[in-house]
Prior knowledge:
Number of domains: 1
CATH class: Alpha Beta
Strand content: 25-35%
Shape: globular
Strand order of the largest sheet: 4-5-6-8-7-12-13-11-10-9
CATH superfamily: HIT-like
Bound molecules: zinc ion
Largest sheet: 10 strands, antiparallel
Amino acid sequence: MRDIGFRMEITRGCYRNPFQNFEEKEILIEERYDETTGVSSRILPYRVRPAQKPDIAPYLEKSPESLCPFCPDLFDKLTPKFPPDVIAQGRFCRKEAWLFPNAFPYDATNTVAIFSSRHFLALDQFSPETLRDGFGVCRDYFFRMAEMQKGYQYGSINWNYMPPSGGGLIHPHLQTVAGKKPTNFMRRLLASAQNYAAASGGDNLWRNILLWEKQAAQRLIADTGVVYWLAAFSPKGMAGEIDFFFKEKTSFFDLTEANMDEFLQGLSRVLLYLHVNNYMSFNLSLYATMTPEKHFWVQGKIVPRFELNPLGTSDLNYFEKLHDEIICPVVPEQLCKELQPYFQA
Ligand SMILES: [Zn+2]
């Protein structure tokens, strides 16, 4: 198998520790680089994690249901509608879930989807059933875009949950983006897959990553059939990163409802793990091609987000923002071990 490009180097440092009579203390920092994603990270040997459940009350006070554009009182008045050529009713709907244009779009096709009329859900309340219709309306929208022959080749379903992750509203909501060009990061993934295939005589990068991780048995959280879950070797966030891949699915439209259900089962387990470990916020992206791209598999990432107490310090600092390297005090192999039991329950 051609090398999949995980690089690791250990840097040793030393300081005199004020908490132990200024005795010399050695520190080991693992510098990691993933050639597929281009992510550089430093895995640090000290454990920094939210020690207690974050207080949700101040968020709910500042963003009450009475002011929420996604709650039933204001929903119809304040959420945008599509022109009738997209959908006659103006919005996509599955039971309590709705999808509509983003009022503050990043892109021509930036939409918002709500799961239900429920204003707040903690991370242990997202059962697969709770998640199903929200992801379902995103699916309906992508199918409609394909039917309208918009020529979109790349799409994503995204989620900022709660303010530490950039979420602007408490009310749980997804966002879709579709376009003729991939986003910068998706372009990187596509190029890595194509370069790997070219250099290996046609091998599929994602298939080999799965084989590699199965053999290594250090970061493979679970293989649930069509979907497999990994702790990322070189994470994109200070609290690590959890990845999912849809085996052999080379376009969003290859995903069946059953495949989506399998994914949502896993997602629900990951969110429960986060809840138990005192996280309440995360970013999620599902990346997909919208026309078959044989070297690419539909896949995504979940990055837990948090504020550092007591100041509410951001988990994103100069190292990530301006040097493009991630500081991560969560060891990916440990994150994997902690998540595995959630998939065995
Ligand atoms: Zn609401």
